[in-house]
Structure formats: structure tokens, C-alpha cells
Please model this.
Amino acid sequence: MLRLLFVGDSMTIGSAGEHTWRYRMWQHLRSSYGAPFKIVGPRTALYDKAADAPVSYEYADPDFPQEHLAGWGEGWQHMVPLIGETVRAARADLLLVSLGLIDLGFYTDAEKTAANARAFIAEARAANPNVAAVLLPVIPNTRAQDDPDFALEVARFNELLAKAVADLDTDRSPLLLASPPAAYEIHHDTYDGTHPNASGEHKLAAAFADALYQAWDLGAPYAQA
Model:
């Protein structure tokens, strides 16, 4: 059985009232994978903006496996200490990872963020030497649109992430760099210039789904809503 772990920041955990792209991906796999799979992870909540904490369970549709390892304001550096134990405890064998924007925005430069991504992969592999992972580049937000220096840092990190995937990919523990979502437009696919709305959720799920199908023949192309 495929045991799949979502890892991400605020775009992945989602907030109260949302479906989340995790839900969209689960729907896609349920209709296309054709074999047993399980969503795993130590967390299940959404972020509650009023409480400023991940304490909400007000999913737009709660009838799906809600497990994940994602956090509002968390990035690569926060996940490095958590991923090994999470992979081990959940017996995860496929990671879908969307991280980096929060690191670059508040914590680390492109080089240090890329070093944390490599450390994350090492920790995951220490827990499961056969773990596979699909990594999504950072999607620029309104800050990148308005701040040329930040946009350059995002672009630099994405180059370093691609190099890390190329350097570290192995037959035993394959890594895949997803393509940024096709036609993703921050003023149409987000509600605030960063966080996905419904159309953005579909496009994020499609980026992972299409990468899995094209590279590994897993599932099918994503059927856009």
C-alpha cells in the first residue's frame, strides 16, 4: 500500500473553511491511482486565523483523510527535525513537499534554504532508505512581484532545489522536481497573493499529479475542474 505524506507550509495546511489542495489530490488519487493508498501524518488540523493557531477542523468537506505534516509559518528548517520521526512513525514512502517561501521570506537565504532541503532529504532517507519524494519549486507571491531582490532569491533557491534533486536522485530513493503549476496567476489563483483559493488548490494538486504520472506513471493526468 502506498503511504503518502503531505509536507508543507501555510499553502498546504490551509485555513478554516478551505478544501485544501490535499483534498484535491486525495480526490484525484482516489479516482486514478487504481491501487490501495493511505494518507499519513501526525497532524490533521487547519489553521484558525482568529485563534492564530492550527486548531480548526472546519474543512469545506471534512470527509477525507486529513493527516499531514504542514504548518502555518513553517518551512524547510522547521521540518528537518520532524521529518525523520514522522516518516518512521507513519511508515511514509511517498512525500509530496511544498516548502521554501516562508524560509526565504523570514528565516534563511537561498543557499541556507537549499542546504536545509538537502538535510530534510537525508533525514527522510535515514528513516526510510526507499522513500520517494516530489518537490515543488517555490511559487512567487505578491512580495516577489513587488520586491526584485526577493524575486531573485526565490529564483536562486529554485535553481538550487533543482540541482539538489539532480544530485540526490537515486534508483532506490527517487526524487522528482515538479513543474510549477501551469498558468498559475496569483491574482486569480490565490485569495491574498500567496494562499490558494479553489482554482489554486486544483492547480497545486495538478502540479504534483502530473509530475507523478509523467515521470513514474502513477495515477493519471489531473482532470482540471
In short: The chain is about 45% helix and 15% strand. Residues 95 and 133 are 4 Å apart (CA to CA).
